[in-house]
Structure formats: structure tokens, C-alpha cells
């Protein structure tokens, strides 16, 4: 590897604000904010969605029943030919 061209890899605290959970993960993200967790100081990055709050991973997914275009056509014109 060439020297001085790669970003600094560090341990970062990501905070899922929707589920109020923290993830301590290695990353190259740059941030000026810090937070102290478990007696250590980490760079801090708030995030909106993670696996702790996303409906697909939590099982709270809403299923929306939508008919296709053919079903909508048949429902709209089903009584026209029966006169």
C-alpha cells in the first residue's frame, strides 16, 4: 500500500436515534463530535435508521395490499358488458 493516501481507520460510535441504541464499529468517517461510552471516548455519528429500528429487521413491517392494474381495470369495467 502507498503511504499517506488511505483514510484513517478508527473505532466510531454510531447512535441510532430512532431506537436509542449504539453501535461501536470501525469506520473511516470523519466527525468532530465525540461521546464517552463504557469509559472510552469515541467519535460520535448519529444515524436515523439501523437494523435496530428498520421495519424489515424488527418484524414490524407493514404490508400494503395493492391490486395490480388488471384487477383495477376489471373492477372498474365489470358491469359494462352485462346490460
From TrEMBL:
Q: Which domain of life is it from?
A: Bacteria
Keyword DNA repair present in the record's keywords: the answer is no
Classification via PROSITE patterns: RIBOSOMAL_L31
Q: Which UniProt keywords apply?
A: Ribonucleoprotein, Ribosomal protein
Decide whether keyword Transmembrane is in the record: no
TM spans (from-to)? none
Q: Which GO terms describe its cellular component?
A: ribonucleoprotein complex; ribosome
Q: SUPFAM superfamilies attached here?
A: L28p-like
Quaternary structure (record): Part of the 50S ribosomal subunit.
* Family indicated by similarity: Belongs to the bacterial ribosomal protein bL31 family. Type B subfamily.
- By what name is this protein known? Large ribosomal subunit protein bL31B
Which organism does this record belong to? Pseudoalteromonas porphyrae
What's the name of its gene? rpmE2
